[in-house]
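Progress narrative, work stream C.
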Amino acid sequence: MKKNRLGRTELLVSNYCLGTMTWGSQTGTRRAHAQIDAARDHGINFIDTSEIYPMDPVRPETIGRTERIIGLWLDGAPGRRSDVILATKHAGQGMRMVRGGAPISAATIPEAVEGSLRRLKTDYIDLYQFHWPNRGSYHFRRNWDQEAATRDPRRIADNMIDCLDALEAERRRGTIRAFGLCNETAWGLTRWIALAEGRAAPRPATIQNDYSLLQRQFDTDLAEVSLHEEAGLLASAPLSAGLLTGKYQGGAVPQGSRRARIPDLNNRVTPGSFAAVDDYMDIAFKHDLDPVHMALAWVASRPFVTSVVFGAHTGEQLDRVLAGLDTRLGEEVLRDIDLAHGDHPQPY
């Protein structure tokens, strides 16, 4: 398994990362622990979670359960902690079931870090990420309203500085090793970097955003910033919430699937999505590739990607992913993908 450097840190993470957002709802503890063991057997050393997981939906009674499941695995045998790079996230503004939806601040960071450490049964978090920017986000098919887009940049910077100082205090305390962002913009990423470099504070090592054959918004300004500023992408939803597996084609909604619970897959379901998936599946069949392996390998091949964050709620789904981790795409496949993207530049 290829390893990549996490930003400018000394941490090396596998090219693929085990996502966990179904653990504690769709996926029980034993199956989750079996997933970790299977992933490690295939060279994956990177696990990503959040204090609000499991998701889809987020419920008050399950918040923090995913971290607890990981904590039970870490607590199960001595020495396991050093075998994995563990990433979690601080829930942000609007996530009302955590701290009443309070924005991320110097006051919330110590409390959130302590909560994650307790649930994870660890003394330190390798990568501590901010789940959403306080000022709002247009990701996941949302558009900023005028108020969010025109907030005072000086107040935004003041909050960022306070948060960076609080993160530095945690780093000095030994509770976090690196800092990352999620669902950020090019402007936001550059501001965090500039402010961190002007003081003793952790520089963003990564940015975790939606990225797949169907969602290539990152390819524009963010890709350039990510590549040249050494803040690599942790590509989430690389299978577009299951659309790229082909299992929803023809109007199918498999029992127990994500779409059975969330019919629009968080606004991903459109006529354009299904038309694009048809073309990508044709490319996979033409080149004798599993569509899942092709979709994941394409994301992993992008020069700005540090790791591909995938999830599976069943052992069968995980086995399918793990069987294709060594897939490499030839030039003809990549040309066909480029042509399909030209026909479907923004399916949703």
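Work stream C, second folded protein:
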Amino acid sequence: MLDVRDYLPARRKQTPSGWISFNCPVCQEKRSRGGIKVSDQGWSFHCFNCNYTASFILGRNLSIKARQLLKHFNVPERDIEMLNLESLKHRSIHGMLEDRQRVWNQLAAITFEERDLPPHASLLADEIPYRGYVRSRAVPDDYPIMIQAENDNVHWTRPHVVIPFTYDNSIVGYTCRFLDNRTPKYISETQPGYVFGTDLQHADWTQAIVVEGIFDALCINGLAVMHNDINDAQVRLIRSLGREVTVVPDQDRPGMALVDRAVELGWAVSMPNWPEDVKDVNDAVMRWGRLTTLLTIMQSRETSRIKIELRRKQLIKRFI
């Protein structure tokens, strides 16, 4: 097993509490503000100058930040991969069973309160321009999109559609999407840890596609986390589905943050080679249709950290 202490700078000092301090290799400061604490189960690093933090625990995947730190220590790439492999081998069957039991215990606590829809909300029929807008976003006709026929003095008089949030077929929130594209485009009533689209999943599916936006999820029966991060409660909910997860980030600078989180969680990432004006799943479906979009997503599905990082760097060049 790789001992990270073998790669620390020669100029270092150990404190009575067990921390080893040295010049941080990340920000290149000169006052020994970086420190690492090593135990039999792993290590934890923190720099008080640049606030860079990273940690490693035996039995878990190496995170992106832990890998980057090891590279700053000039640990060879091969040794980093070997450390990750040895760490995963360390997980005993007993440990995995404990993890599974802990997950099931957590899942038992996943609940959401029922919530009311906005006043005067009714199912969308053939009203213009509402129906035209919904169809232009490639939303299936069978999803219960709603409108507000009357002004309630809360959601303004701007034309908008109401998209109910459901969980176990109960209404637990909603979002209003305004049709005029003025700011704000959305206002939402949601609950912590909620993931849109769980009721769109079929029991016999083996794959779950995680996206950022509501319309991205609606047009492919995916799961929307509704921002460019996935919090721990959402992770528990997604894992409760018991299927392989593929994260498809928006192809813009904020979307790249979702890539780091997906890799940290050990999930696959798909960044298809779409044209620059196709920024997300909904754009792709509107251009090529649902089936072709799903095929490009699954064909571009990647689990290799190195290949994911290479593809992300290709996309980042677009934003410079």
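The chain has ten helices and 15 strands. No further action is required on this item.
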